[in-house]
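This part of the workshop introduces the protein records we will be handling. Each record describes a single protein and holds just a pair of labelled lines. Instead of coordinates, the fold is spelled out as a row of discrete tokens. To make this concrete, we reproduce a full record directly below:
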Amino acid sequence: MVMSSPPLSPPADPQTSVTPTPPPLGAGGFLRWMWRQLTSMRTALILLFCLAIAAIPGSVLPQRGTDPVLVQEWIDNAPTWGPVLDRLGFFDVYAAPWFAAIYLLLFISVIGCVLPRTMHHIRALRTNPPPAPRRLERLAEYRRFELSTDSDLSTAGQSTVTLDAVASDLKSRRWRVSRGDNEHGGWVAAEKGYSRETGNLLFHAALIFLLLAISYGAIFGWRGNVIVREGGGFSNTLTQYDAWGGGRLVSGDALDPFSITLTDFKVEFERDESQRGSPLLFEADVIVQPAPGEEEFTDVIRVNEPLSLDGAKVFLVGHGYAPRMIVRDAEGRAVYDDASIVLPQDGNQTSIGVIKAPDALPQLGFQSLFLPTAAVDNVRGPHSVFPDADDPAMFVSAWIGDLGLDNGVPQSVYRLDTETMTQIGLEAMRPGDVWDLPDGVGSIEFVDVQRWASFQIAHDPGKEPALIAAGVALVGLMLSLFVKRRRVWVRTSQTDSGATVVEIAALARHDEADLADDVNAVQATAEGGAR
């Protein structure tokens, strides 16, 4: 019989062959793919890096939450880029939508990474160590030896006693142990170091709670800065602060109504040449009234020793000088009589300040350079050589014209707008000096020097939870770094001569683990249990 073969099909033309395409994902498949990408460790690391990059403008540029005056000055000095950066949220980074988007995506990604790993770890904790592999000699650490024959025990009995001794010893050293027998003998499987993965998960879970605590503090917390002169005080109301920033769900009307009066501010500086000018002592003696009508008490606020009031803390963050000046107009009327705050520019308290006298006719303005210990040279010009008020002096520049206070545009109290003003003179003054201004427009008197202290009042309800979360994260990180996860197997068998052979092997999940000590301990137990 002749069988006909099927006709051969022509070979496929490589230029005309079509590569099969996978079926479309569909909406559900696409969402699952997106979720897997978002919850991958690679995406979490990328988002963490993006968050660090996004936080850079918040540390480089002034922020409205802490210093709105400086923000406005920065925008005014950069008319091209300032408004653009402002619209993009670079002056309020931590409340910007793009920063919140990175923050939330990182939050979701970390949760998506941690939850599946946690469930897998829980299942692993409830599962016995796996039986010994068939080829133990292929593992990283391997030993094989024969037990000496015990006339009182059969071969099977000797194997059982040996494995029981090994299992008991491993359990006493907190290994998880499983025991089994087969037709050739028996085996013991042990595993230790589960706390490494526990620490890893604990670290990531603590990171999630840390983010939650920081978010809670940012939403419900607030902080403000205020400068107080000696003899003055402030109340915890929004209008009293020089700068104030609150969370999205914080209202300035809900602040606790305490008040503080600065009675004395003590400052001491090092005078030895080795560390001349270094601060030795900053203390603010204050009188505190927790609420209207309540009893007052006195306290001392020091650096790193804040005052606690109703969940808020009052920190001493800075200090400076406030020369008292009296400005008189052409008719001799005192149109300004106050201690004007000057802002330090260097470690020796070389300071600048502004005085505005809108009630004078014509209006007067003054720019001042205050030097606690004055010195003048041809290189640096007027400057201070020591931060304490050993030889105070002021260089005052007088201006006449429109101060610009009547146009409704807010101005910084530390900046004089001289665009519509004319300079009429410059004078060096010491305490007690009076400068009669040119053309009889008035005079200015340098009376004495007072001090001021800068306080930051902050309420952060997420601080304690964040501290706890950070401590837990540190514990988890130490566990994940220093605990080594490893497995040990012990298997017994019989030779043709009836001798008991013991095989010991160990395997580590990480290369840095030292398995020799574990194998030596098991071998010593096996040899001792057989005797």
